[in-house]
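At your convenience, could you comment on the folded chain following this short note?
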Amino acid sequence: MLVEVEKSTPRSQAPKQAQYDLVCIGFGPASLAIAIALHDRAIDARVLYIEKQRSFIWHAGMLLPNARMQISFLKDLATLRDPTSKFTFINYLKSKNRLVAFTNLSTFLPLREEYNDYMSWCASHFEDDVQYGFETTSVKAVNNENGPIETWQITSKNTETNQSSTITARNVVIAIGGKPKIPIAITGLESHIVHSSSYSVTVPQILKATSKPHSIAVVGGGQSSAEIFNDLQSRYPNSAVSLFTGASALKPSDDSPFVNEIFDPERVDDFYHLPPSSRQQSTLSNKATNYGVVRPELLDRLYESMYHQRLHEPDPRKWQFQIVPWREVVGVEKDGERIRLRLKNTSTGETSISDHPFDLAIFGTGYERKGHEKLLESTRGMLQGGKFSVERDYRVKYRIDMVNEGSGVWLQGCCEDTHGLGDTLLSMLAVRGGEMVDSIFGSQAQQRARL
């Protein structure tokens, strides 16, 4: 079979040798967990991580003041796989001389900015193996005249110079995260539309005067939208802020102990082996754990804020901060130097235009997780059934005759349909990182794990 292969091009900051045992595309939490598992198992392998950001940072746009994690610190990048690892959150606190002080907080939920610092601390141990500032544009199979594919060619470009570089590897992990999703056409209106993922970075650049009476819309009924709605009230205290949600109200997330067991690592096996229809039903029934819901403590804070307005003004239409239920944003229209939102009443189906214009609309409308398909497009003809489906160990299902057993491509963070709601969450990463190492490096990894 002929496989398209790009010729190598000169590159800056490129590795001296071309062949790697493993290349991880993206160096976020998923790849970092793999790096930690490789370190803990003392695997002797040539590994490279390629990351388009200039340094490690996790959800930079949502590192809001006083925002806390939604998972226990014990579900860090190592503890559930190996509590003796040097990369546990507790050891991070010890190394920063904050362990005793943290225990005095009596919480399992660290600040989000502290958890980002923890992961940055972990990432700093692997800087020699990370190529920052490079965005991968394709992964192609290298044709093997003697049999199945054994090597993959990865092409990346320098995000500053656009200069391309090409390397090869026996194994590839694609862990590029999600692409911000805005479910309406916004061409020509980009200066008025922001996705929640870049909120704290982009909004201050657009609305520079924090004391001016801006008019701001927040779109969505999930945790990110609620956090932004809450943050705007102090960041722009003289502004009018409206949150639009298609639901009847902001709804609480369910993190009760029995429900939380769906995120136990061993549950992945059960979910994967369910019939597709049962997987869909399970995902739908457990949506309240992760999608379109808000932590109860934040809901309490927001309701108290709304009640304070009611105390001083009985007419909700005159409130500075408003939550508008039953309204889905289905379009945006220019109105002079501002925009108006086209709204759909989700209870009646009727559409209307917002009563007043907005300087800015911030969309907390989630992410698309199909970036791997573009990277692997040239290999589509090798797939089983023509779809990018994966095995239980996250390995892409190429036809058996196409790829050597000691080579392959693995996907991370885009397998929710087959591996459950925890696939995109941090809580699974410690155990999953070990599983990935076992799958890619086989007997060597398992032998090290027993030592």
